[in-house]
Amino acid sequence: MPKSTNIVWHESEVSKQERQRLNRHKSVVLWFTGLSGSGKSTLTVELEKKMYQSGIRTYRLDGDNIRHGLNKNLGFSPEDRTENIRRIGEVSKLMVDAGLIVLTAFISPYRQDRDNVRALLESDEFIEIHVKAELETCEKRDPKGLYKKVRAGQIKEFTGIDSPYEEPLHPEIVIDTDKHTIEESTQYVIEFLKNKAYTE
Ligand SMILES: Nc1ncnc2c1ncn2[C@@H]1O[C@H](COP(=O)(O)OS(=O)(=O)O)[C@@H](OP(=O)(O)O)[C@H]1O
Ligand SMILES: Nc1ncnc2c1ncn2[C@@H]1O[C@H](COP(=O)(O)OP(=O)(O)O)[C@@H](O)[C@H]1O
């Protein structure tokens, strides 16, 4: 429930559309969701590099990074994950208003939480990207050694092991990182954005 009362919205005199025109591209959230180790961070980093080289204004929000600051008071209980995603949804919305292409890399395991973010934005401002990989693949990659710790009983409530991951039902894009290289996947997203006229 909102705690603030007696607050009044104050309009800007520069609109989102004007900022988008200045940037020469639309603003949108590319919401990458998937298991730990599926490839969310790798793909968003690569994409951001390529977009920057094409003169596109981006910002990357990554679970690990945001949990160092804005969300450092949150853990991995279902309630904390929901609050994590709620805050990121609001931050993403601000960044879309600022005219950016926002690349988010959060496990975001709950369908309802992701749908709530979608509902915050205009219908063409949220692109859900399911980064798909078998749990076995993620565990084999184990880029941060977390699955090893989970198996040793040192981490609890780990997504895909003893905490759920609800796959998207109707994502705009599915990227299977068991089957496609990083180069193929990033190229696919770049083409998608061009074809849908988000970028030139
Ligand atoms: N218990 C548990 N479950 C899942 N992940 C864990 C956990 N503990 C720590 N980590 C590390 O935190 C990163 C996930 O943070 P997120 O903010 O993306 O999680 S969530 O969306 O709120 O579920 C996740 O990053 P990625 O591996 O990049 O997905 C892990 O590095
Ligand atoms: N086809 C692929 N697409 C994305 N990442 C891949 C692929 N093949 C191997 N990897 C590796 O898998 C790991 C994925 O880790 P990361 O990007 O941190 O995942 P997440 O952010 O989803 O936890 C990286 O070490 C990356 O180099």
Automatic annotation (TrEMBL):
Binding sites annotated in the UniProt record for ATP: 34-41
Alphabetized UniProt keyword annotations:
ATP-binding, Kinase, Nucleotide-binding, Phosphoprotein, Transferase
* Catalysed reactions listed for this entry: adenosine 5'-phosphosulfate + ATP = 3'-phosphoadenylyl sulfate + ADP + H(+)
The record's active-site residues are 108
GO biological process, alphabetically ordered: hydrogen sulfide biosynthetic process; sulfate assimilation
What Gene Ontology molecular-function terms does this entry list? adenylylsulfate kinase activity; ATP binding
* Cited InterPro entries: APS, APS_kinase_dom, P-loop_NTPase
Question: What CDD domains does this protein map onto?
Answer: APSK
Enzyme Commission numbers on file: 2.7.1.25
Q: Which residues form the APS kinase domain?
A: 26-176
Involved pathway(s): Sulfur metabolism; hydrogen sulfide biosynthesis; sulfite from sulfate: step 2/3
Question: Its family?
Answer: Belongs to the APS kinase family.
Q: Do you know which PANTHER family this protein is assigned to? A: BIFUNCTIONAL 3'-PHOSPHOADENOSINE 5'-PHOSPHOSULFATE SYNTHASE, PAPS SYNTHETASE, ISOFORM D
**What does this protein do, in the record's words?**
Catalyzes the synthesis of activated sulfate.
Stated name of the protein = Adenylyl-sulfate kinase
Its source organism is Aquibacillus koreensis
Upper lineage ranks?
Bacteria, Bacillati, Bacillota, Bacilli, Bacillales
